[in-house]
């Protein structure tokens, strides 16, 4: 073998993206060292401590595609542990209105983060060339030699060497901050004034005395209230996990249980009996306030040495349900690019041939898509909390949907491109902007045609229609 | 005294801004603990290691005002150690053109960073309530209790408690990163593709055999070449410190001494004999390449606990010569605000009354000014490397200058507002935008009047002038 050795990749963070990436690298024939700060979440003692803290994620096509591409049973196993959601259920004035995610009946999938992580860790550990190291806290990285120093189980320091290091250690990534000390990385983090608090909605009791869902389970429930909102996602155990999003100041203004109940009575009346008054009070005051940050970094790689993926490279607000899906797609795209560059799991004098070009290529491709979905997720906060209640918005959505149903390749709704395709995010947005242009032209032309028709029928209504026509023509001018 | 104690402020970083801030806090009657990572730069052994590495800064009105406000002899002492620069000297095609900084003969001052730092440290240590701790490396900060843990002289860990902690530890601030772990701080860092390398130009020999300046000392010399440039600032010892700014790729393309000399021959011919061929080769290949980053953070304070100032809060590219001036002004503004809020150096149960409101006020005021000068510094890179050679730009500058000379309060050149006043940066820029508008109106009106005059004299020239008139009218339309 002379100076050749099997390539070793070190992955920091055995969360969702890190674990999936370990599987991909193992399948390419690399030796994989997967490091995780926390103890093994699958041990009974740690499972116990997770009770009542289920966090749901919405798994959609980008995530599913990355699971499918492993060729393992992952997609099937994970879908079995999830609840399909085919529509939003909007709660306004005590009524519920269903808004389908797709005119073709496509759905997204509510899945428990911890359960998903366990399934991925099981699959990773089944590969003979993956070693998972729990309770490994990264202390520092020698970026040029790819030596990582860890504090192991709070007891001793150990140093490991790698040919490539990948940071999949989340929004507050230690790997990223180590890379920033060594390279010129552009970096941006921005918080929104909105925070969140989780509440749980227990199973209801069905007519047969058995547990059942308190709300229609095949929906993502939303109580949109413009500056704040409540959402609820189903769990396979018949409970719902609710999240209240609102400005930090509003959280601070609710100081007593009476104020809380009054706030819910005024805004989310139908949710109170479903959550239960006692449980609501307990959760609201005991659970932490989460904050929401957007993180953008560029580039994502440091030469042929290291790379950040998932939240470490692009944390986003959760309003498009794309955080995990984007992270999973990172993994699929990364390995497509490694394929394209014919990267072999062979290290010659601590170098993998062609790796720098491949990782540069990855950053070039993925940075713009990551930036695009970060921006879109922020925009969708507006849509979820605000626009889903506007008639104009709904009319526009309806028109998009109708055109897409009859001419599926002419107008594709943005939500469909993001959640039900694997089209790069940046291209989905470009296409959306082009479509919006023509959709506006169509809507204005329709207005003009109607107005002309009315005018030709009788001069009687002319005065009423003239302002509309003028404004339509004005808008037309801006479109060209 | 019951539960009252003297307020203790901990300042991390005894650089220029940290040392000045220590003086201000001491004058307010606080107990000041000033921590510095490096050993005492004033000890002969460390002085020696600094030789040939002088970095010059341009001290202007904002910095001077902050020194003056201490009431000490600081301004005078420091000006004595500096060289006044009243103009830019632009080197093009072997000729030199002087461009005054101000129509009133105002000047900026070249000062050696290390010398300035020494003078400030001396002044700080003269205050009986300041203690300077050298070789203190910040390990971590307990942000809510203001306990700072340091590694002292690479030997032992020590923890110090404070009522208020201030991070003045530069662009890569450790205090800032500790604050970011505890609070929602918006943060942005962005590199430019341009790097820099320092070169030194030794004293020349005068006709009397004594050392003298190789170039006119009362100028900031610039060799602007659009995508790259060379600058030179005078030192009191008759040498100049030169800095070559250019894209990293260009640095990398110069691999041999021959390529270097060819590059200088083509671009900076007149500088070669002044720097000296051997010294040029040595410096260019031995000195490190610096990178240039813009850092913006918001807010600058964490409640009443901590604050970042200077580069820690707002690193900027060096092209407006405002980095230090802005940092000194931070100190002056901070203490004006502490005065306005009547902050007393008295700690009751580890709290200083009114401090949160004062620090919130500081962030509110200073964040927008810091962002403004960061953006302007980036814009000035364009002006320095590019625009100083354009005729249109120079005509516009001249017009500004003439109007300012005759009507000093109508049009104030931006450079004058930034460098020769203490007007908040954000207001200087607002005013500049308003002025630019009217200056454009004036220039276009002049063009129109001239054209009409010519047209009335004879139709002969009509065709030549029509396009100018049309374009002037078009531009006018955009201005309103």
Automatic annotation (TrEMBL), chains A, B:
Main location: mitochondrion
Compartments (UniProt record): Mitochondrion outer membrane
Pathway assigned in UniProt: Cofactor biosynthesis; NAD(+) biosynthesis; quinolinate from L-kynurenine: step 1/3
All copies of domain FAD-binding, residue ranges: 9-339
The protein's Enzyme Commission number: 1.14.13.9
Classification via Gene3D superfamilies: FAD/NAD(P)-binding domain
TM ranges: 6-26, 402-425, 437-459
Domain of life: Eukaryota
Entry GO MF terms: FAD binding; kynurenine 3-monooxygenase activity
Class of this enzyme: oxidoreductase
GO cellular component: mitochondrial outer membrane
HAMAP family reported for this sequence: Kynurenine_monooxygenase
Similarity comment: Belongs to the aromatic-ring hydroxylase family. KMO subfamily.
Known role: Catalyzes the hydroxylation of L-kynurenine (L-Kyn) to form 3-hydroxy-L-kynurenine (L-3OHKyn). Required for synthesis of quinolinic acid.
Protein name: Kynurenine 3-monooxygenase
Native species: Mucor saturninus
